[in-house]
Amino acid sequence: MSMEYKDSTEYKNSTEDKNSGDVKNSGEKKGFFARLKEGLNKTRNNIVNGIDSVFNGFSAIDDEFYEELEEILIMGDIGVNATSDILQRLKKQVKEQHIKEPAACKQLLIDSIREQMQVGETAYDFEKKQSVILVIGVNGVGKTTSVGKLAGILKDQGRKVLIAAADTFRAAAGEQLAGWANRAGVDMIGGAEGSDPASVVFDAVNAAKARHVDVLLCDTAGRLHNKKNLMEELKKINRIIDREFPDAHRENLVVLDGTTGQNALAQAREFGEAAELTGIILTKMDGTAKGGIAVAIQSELNVPVKYIGVGEDMEDLQKFDPEQFVNALFDGKTEEE
């Protein structure tokens, strides 16, 4: 049996107390780009300093020069496939432009990395259509908070949003999500702890249709008794949505922890076996040395990073902007500074 939480005061007191500091300190808080740039300090030390040493340490562009660059990019979690694509593009441009000095092709490398992360024009079509967004990922990556923040983003765009709290296996997951739903100002359909997640999604889908909701956001379990059960549960939920809401635009977003590097990639591949992934939400990018994973993901999975998170507050999740990310990574400047 599912339960519904409206914009009630049920969770308001605790969430208002907990987040009262957000308002007080909002004037002092840095902008998103400044926080992203600060958060990528460790990644910058991991990748950019090494790249600079290659460009400054070599007098000629030769095989050894490219091998050094390759090693630094792979060690920086940019991944084998992405590194190969980036260096192939770089070699082609160096040849076409008759570049001889290593330092002269640094900007070409930066542009090549940026090109590797383009999101695509249709990536955010779900914002304009009646959509069901399934948010998946293991426990501890920031999945539930990402659902709450995404609800806030869509609500601010004037969309009518409903949340389905289908993570019925983790203790207090529903209560945590209800707090986020309250902050975002949206309704939520939930279930008792241990109840069938698919039944919660079934009820939420029918409520979304009846209320003419623009976007239904479904939080899902990050862990069951074993991996096979978890994947089967996701497939079951997908079948219900396909059957009950066939005309809805579908999004399957996997939430990955940016601090886990290549492990995040392995998780995404596993979830990709149970659901056709359409995008990545990359969290905890404030302070990771493995930020290069943002570059690797699209090349390795052919799935774009759509959102990036740099903190705990509602506004700390934003659309992924490759230009902004590369500027932050390579210590670039924007108008904000």
UniProtKB/TrEMBL annotation:
UniProt GO cellular component terms: cytoplasm; plasma membrane
GO terms classed as biological process: SRP-dependent cotranslational protein targeting to membrane
Binding sites annotated in the UniProt record for GTP: 137-144, 219-223, 283-286
Subcellular location as annotated: Cell membrane; Cytoplasm
Keyword terms, alphabetized: Cell membrane, Cytoplasm, GTP-binding, Hydrolase, Membrane, Nucleotide-binding, Receptor
Record Pfam families: SRP54, SRP54_N
Subunit note: Part of the signal recognition particle protein translocation system, which is composed of SRP and FtsY.
Protein name, per record: Signal recognition particle receptor FtsY
Name of the gene: ftsY
